[in-house]
Structures are given as C-alpha cells and as structure tokens.
Write a structure and sequence with these properties.
By secondary structure, the protein is mostly helical. The chain has two domains: about 5-55; about 70-180, Aspartate Aminotransferase, domain 1, CATH 3.90.1150. It has helices spanning about 5-35, 40-55, 70-95, 115-125, 150-175, and strands spanning about 105-110, 130-135, 140-145. Strands 1-3-2 form a three-stranded antiparallel beta sheet, covered by helices on one side. Helix 3 runs antiparallel to helix 5 (about 150-175).
Length: about 190
C-alpha cells in the first residue's frame, strides 16, 4: 500500500471515529434527558460537536485488531466474575464472625499496549472486592488490594482469574501475528 493510500486510510478512520463519537454522545444525551425530541437531538448534537471538535483528546495509538468472538467471550467472563464476586462480597458483609483478611497482591500483566493495560485495570477495578492501587507501567506490574484472601487457595484463585483475563485480552486485542507497534504517525 502506498504512503498516500495509508494517509487517506488514516484520515477516513479518524473521521469515522469522530462521526461515531458524535452519534454516541447524542444518544447518551437523549438517554439522559429521557425524551426523544427535536430539541434534545439538536442539543445533543451541539454538545457532541463541542466535545468532539473543541475539547478533543489526544489520539490514542491502537496497535492491534479487535476480534469480535474473543470480545464476546471476554465480556461473558467479566460479567460472570462480576456476579460471582458480588455474591461473595455480599456474603462477607452479612456473615457473622471476624472481618475477612485482605492483602495487596502484585500481578504482572505483560500486555503490549497501554490502552489494553488500562482496560485490564478497569476490568479488575469493576470486580467487587478488588481495587488496583498502583500501576507500574514500565514493568507492567499492578498492585491490587484483594478482599478475603486468607488462604493460599484464595490467592491462587485470584491469580488464575487475572491470568484468564490477560489471555482473553490478548486474544481480543493483541494477537502476535497482527501486532504492529504504533508510532505517532500511525495513530
């Protein structure tokens, strides 16, 4: 592919992303107001255009490709973890006895992209009973506060869940055969 074609492809991709962002923001605006009317659509469009063009964020480099089937599996696993963890935390809140033991565990997440690392951190933070306290971006380490970690079995279960999350994120966004590190020109 020629340099001109790549440049055109990047420009089309950026505009498609902006159009998608505007549509999404208008939809959120309408949902917030709870009424589909011409005034809400126009108001949402004005706010979306203001946010998208005047308050735009820097471009985040995207190095891999999205795999929809892997994304579906990732979504199901995160959803299952949320339900199971919510029930466990609810049980810990109402069961009699001493409070559960908690700990801060270090986890290495060798994800290549900062964007995917951020997604992993958000997935961990969404899970009840866990919270990322610190991220060492250079060494790809995260320090996670984990509730009810009083046994080696519980720690192993936590590490297994994190390993599964990592595998699913790699399968969804960072497959080796499709990986091309982005530079600022490719973003």
């Amino acid at each position: 592919m020629s340099a001109g074609a790549k440049s055109t492809q990047r420009m089309v991709r950026r505009w498609a992303l902006r159009v998608w962002s505007v549509c999404w923001l208008v939809a959120v605006w309408i949902l917030l107001w709870g009424d589909v009317s011409a005034a809400n659509i126009l108001g949402g469009l004005a706010v979306a255009l203001l946010i998208t063009f005047l308050l735009s964020l820097p471009v985040v480099p995207v190095e891999g490709r999205l795999h929809p089937l892997s994304l579906a599996k990732l979504t199901l696993v995160i959803g299952r973890n949320l339900v199971v963890s919510s029930l466990q935390v609810a049980w810990l809140a109402i069961k009699p006895g001493p409070p559960p033991m908690s700990a801060v565990l270090r986890v290495r997440l060798p994800l290549k992209s900062d964007l995917v690392l951020a997604l992993a951190v958000h997935a961990i933070n969404l899970t009840p009973g866990t919270m990322v306290l610190e991220i060492d971006r250079d060494r790809r380490l995260v320090y996670v506060h984990v509730l009810d970690i009083g046994s080696q079995r519980a720690a192993n279960r936590f590490y297994a869940e994190i390993a599964q999350l990592e595998r699913l994120l790699i399968a969804t966004f960072e497959r080796d055969k499709e990986w091309q590190p982005a530079n600022e020109a490719n973003a």
